[in-house]
TrEMBL record:
<keyword id="KW-0547">Nucleotide-binding</keyword>
<keyword id="KW-0808">Transferase</keyword>
<dbReference type="InterPro" id="IPR015864">
    <property type="entry name" value="FAD_synthase"/>
</dbReference>
<keyword id="KW-0067">ATP-binding</keyword>
<dbReference type="GO" id="GO:0005524">
    <property type="term" value="F:ATP binding"/>
</dbReference>
<protein>
    <recommendedName>
        <fullName>FAD synthase</fullName>
        <ecNumber>2.7.7.2</ecNumber>
    </recommendedName>
</protein>
<keyword id="KW-0274">FAD</keyword>
<feature type="domain" description="FAD synthetase">
    <location>
        <begin position="44"/>
        <end position="93"/>
    </location>
</feature>
<dbReference type="Pfam" id="PF06574">
    <property type="entry name" value="FAD_syn"/>
</dbReference>
<dbReference type="GO" id="GO:0006747">
    <property type="term" value="P:FAD biosynthetic process"/>
</dbReference>
<keyword id="KW-0548">Nucleotidyltransferase</keyword>
<keyword id="KW-0288">FMN</keyword>
<dbReference type="GO" id="GO:0009231">
    <property type="term" value="P:riboflavin biosynthetic process"/>
</dbReference>
<dbReference type="GO" id="GO:0003919">
    <property type="term" value="F:FMN adenylyltransferase activity"/>
</dbReference>
<comment type="pathway">
    <text>Cofactor biosynthesis; FAD biosynthesis; FAD from FMN: step 1/1.</text>
</comment>
<dbReference type="InterPro" id="IPR014729">
    <property type="entry name" value="Rossmann-like_a/b/a_fold"/>
</dbReference>
<keyword id="KW-0285">Flavoprotein</keyword>
């Protein structure tokens, strides 16, 4: 920025080699995850309007939140301020459980992922003694009475994953059909077909399905 605007060089407050340590110290404020750092070429954004700049952060860089002081200014010729950021946030809509539930109700998994910042995970309580687990060679049908959280709208969902193991150390690709009474998990032919026989064991006591962004 200084080079583009012709400012005199000045030393950073934090040495570049020390930035990783500083960012790591913020982990306790960020869900026990150290923030990642990357740079944007100032010349590529210097003429963007405030709205264009924020849209770039959201759509191209996947930014989930912005922290700014009250006197912060941004955009071409510093046209935007913290007040405008709040207005933009209201116009784009806040993340809320109500919005997530509405998106699940219509099967809009892309919107659900955007709101949650992750893919929706459906969890079912599996027991070999539980009635209604008819298993085929590549298919499991789980009654909705076994669900531990909210399922999406009835329909076919492609590009899903069955997470196996307590630490999700293995994932099998599948597609999911949700109907009025069951959640049907249809696994790819090439995966280990023995997974169906392990329902209710330590590996698959809880069935965990992560949904992709597509609904057929």
């Amino acid at each position: 920025m200084a080079e583009v605007l012709g400012w005199k060089p000045r030393a950073s407050i934090v040495a570049k080699c020390d930035r990783k340590r500083v960012l790591s110290s913020w982990a306790s404020y960020c869900g026990d995850m150290a923030p990642a750092e990357f740079e944007i070429e100032f010349s590529s954004v210097r003429r963007l309007t405030p709205r264009q700049f924020v849209e770039k952060l959201l759509k191209e860089l996947g930014v989930r939140g912005i922290v700014a002081g009250e006197n912060y200014r941004f955009g071409y010729k510093a046209a935007g301020d913290a007040t405008e950021l709040r207005v933009m946030r209201q116009s784009w809509g806040q993340v809320s459980s109500t919005r997530v539930r509405r998106a699940l109700a219509v099967g809009d998994m892309k919107c659900v992922s955007q709101l949650l910042g992750r893919q929706h995970r459906l969890i079912m309580n599996a027991s070999k003694d539980q009635e209604g687990f008819p298993g085929g060679k590549h298919k499991l049908s789980v009654p909705k009475s076994s669900l531990l959280n909210l399922a999406p709208k009835e329909g076919l969902y492609e590009k899903c994953y069955l997470c196996i193991g307590e630490d999700d150390d293995r994932a099998s690709s599948c597609r999911v059909v949700v109907d009025t009474g069951y959640v049907h998990i249809e696994m790819d032919d090439e995966v280990d077909v023995g997974v169906c026989n392990r329902v209710g064991t330590q590996d698959l006591r809880l069935l965990r399905i992560e949904f992709g962004d597509s609904q057929s």
